[in-house]
Amino acid sequence: MAFRDLRTGKNKKALPNNDDVKNIIKKAKNHEFYNSYREQSLRIHPWICAKCNKEFSVNNLHLLTIHHKDGDHNNNPPDGRNWEHLCVYCHDNEHKRMLDGEQSKIFDTESHKGDSGLTHNPFAALKNITSK
Q1: Positive or negative CA dihedral for 94, 98, 99, 103?
Q2: Where are the domains positioned within the chain?
Q3: What is the tens place of the pLDDT at every residue in 32-55?
Q4: H helix or E strand, kind and range, residue 85
Q5: What are the tens digits of pLDDT across the range 105-119?
Q6: Distance between CA 81 and CA 41 in Å, rounded?
Q7: What is the CA radius of gyration of the chain?
Q8: What's the CATH architecture for 18-106?
Q9: How many C-beta neighbours within 10 Å does residue 77 have?
């Protein structure tokens, strides 16, 4: 159903009635996104951040993310054992820590073990000065 807007003269769609809204919700529940691992995790686990313990409600649920514990986004068991809820801040922090750990592995290779990579020692002559 449509009606004409008197100010603009353009046709507008009428607001959906209750039956239309129910049908839209029913379709959304059958949609792939509704059955995604996020939705499954939100049904299984409490809406609390696993790191900072902040509780979430329907109003701020968009700030609660699903973190894969093993880092594999394809590992989505139906019982949710690979998922944990993290707020966006803790989730960002968790991935930052993972990146920092990977970065340190790059610099901590066999060729650099025991070698700091520094060539200048500002205190090299200090031993000779203080032992006199």
Answers
A1: positive
A2: 18-106
A3: 544 588 889 999 999 999 999 999
A4: strand 83-87
A5: 666 655 555 555 667
A6: 9
A7: 28
A8: 3-Layer(aba) Sandwich (3.40)
A9: 10
Structure tokens, 121 = 């020692």
Alpha carbon of 30 to those of 8, 18, 33, 62: distances in Å? Answer: 37, 19, 8, 20
What is the DSSP secondary-structure string of 39-69? HHHHHHS-SB-TTT--B--GGGGGGEEEEET
Within 8 A by CB and 6+ apart from 71, the residues are 98
Least Cα distance to 90 among 113, 66, 107 occurs for: 66
Residues paired with 85 in a beta bridge: 66
- What's the whole-model pTM score? 0.53
Round to whole Å and give the CA distance between 10 and 16.
18
CA 53 – CA 64 distance, rounded (Å): 11
CA atoms within a 13 Å half-sphere pointing along the CA-CB vector of 9 = 0
